[in-house]
Design goal:
It is a single chain. With about 325 residues, the chain is an alpha+beta fold. The protein has one domain: Phosphatase 2c, domain 1 (4-Layer Sandwich). The protein is built from seven helices and 16 strands. Strands 2, 5, 6, 7, 8, 12 and 13 form a seven-stranded antiparallel β-sheet that branches. Strands 1-15-14-9-10 form a five-stranded antiparallel β-sheet.
Length: about 325
């Protein structure tokens, strides 16, 4: 499910410092979400807002996010939408304050609102959502993350994951108890250790310092409906070969071709000086794969029923 969108401006690299980004470079991108080939509903929410243009210069912060809800029936969709709504409202209300402080406040507020909605409504009991968000100010990016949705970065020929999965198998890999190959094949790979809304408190991973962005950097945000089915090598090839919108479509097509057993959500963003790349198609946010115009977990392990067949059709 898609949410908000604004205009365009800047992108990615490593370490702090907030140096004014050149107005000749702008961050362009697109996001797509698809229910997949098995599920009838889409519990993902994708959203972005980019700085607005004023006489060729770009002002304001950027916010990019993907949230993958869980809870059965409509509950997962409710949780991911609450997360996106709260992050958008809270983040831009805190404009000018330190980015990492605002992101922490937003994640804690989203957690509280989802948890309370589940407590007040029996049909939403136990719902939660992953959330991976990137905020961009000037030429720096901050990551805020909980769950197993992911953020990646492509710089030159180096493509790597910049988020860390909050899953049981990922933790075992970090401790040296499992190899990455064993983790990928493990029946426990969908056991999530943290999410928004499944407990009264949560500790998201938030960067204290911004990552300095360089021209031509590319960012990818995605739900596990992509990362479970498409290799890093293929992701890199598709992102490097296409404009953001076409890359999103190609990535979704790759996930569907590999089975598409889950909702698939992707966002691709590019720091570019090519203004011809920023046509309407590359600055829209989209729902499933239909093109549109403007649109704007837990501390205890949680098992996601990612592979359960639910039916046929599209959202």
């Amino acid at each position: 499910m898609a949410l908000f969108r604004r205009s365009a401006a800047r992108e990615t690299a490593r370490k702090p410092q907030e140096i004014a980004a050149s107005p000749a470079w702008r961050l362009v991108g697109a996001m797509l979400s698809h229910p997949g080939k098995i599920r009838t509903n889409n519990e993902d929410t994708v959203a972005f807002a980019l700085p607005h243009s004023d006489g060729g210069e770009f002002h304001g912060d950027a916010l990019l996010l993907v949230a993958d809800g869980m809870g059965g029936h409509a509950a997962g969709e409710v949780a991911s939408r609450i997360a996106a709504d709260v992050l958008y409202r809270c983040f831009f209300a805190g404009s000018g304050r330190p980015v990492h402080e605002v992101l922490a406040e937003c994640f804690h507020q989203a957690n509280a609102e989802i948890f309370e909605a589940g407590r007040q409504n029996p049909e939403y009991a136990g719902m939660g959502t992953t959330c991976t968000a990137i905020a961009v100010r000037h030429n720096c990016a901050w990551l805020a993350h909980v769950g197993d949705s992911r953020a990646y970065m492509l710089r030159d020929d180096d493509f790597h994951q910049i988020s860390e999965d909050h899953t049981l198998v990922a933790e075992l890999v970090r401790r040296g108890s499992l190899t990455r190959e064993e983790a990928a094949a493990s029946p426990e790979r969908n056991v999530i250790l943290k999410a928004l809304g499944t407990a009264a408190t949560v500790e998201p991973r938030i960067w204290d310092e911004g990552m300095v962005l360089r021209p031509n950097d590319r960012l990818l945000l995605c739900s596990d409906g992509l990362s479970d089915l498409v290799t890093d090598t293929m992701m890199q090839e598709l992102i490097a070969a296409h404009s953001p919108l076409d890359a999103c479509q190609a990535l979704i097509d790759a996930a569907l071709g590999a089975g598409g057993h889950d909702n698939v959500s992707v966002g691709v963003f590019h720091l570019t000086d090519r203004f011809d790349e920023t046509d309407a198609a590359d600055t829209v946010i989209e729902r499933p794969t239909r093109r549109t115009e403007d649109a704007p977990i837990a501390d205890r392990p949680t098992r996601r029923n990612a592979d359960a067949p639910i039916g046929d059709g599209a959202n």
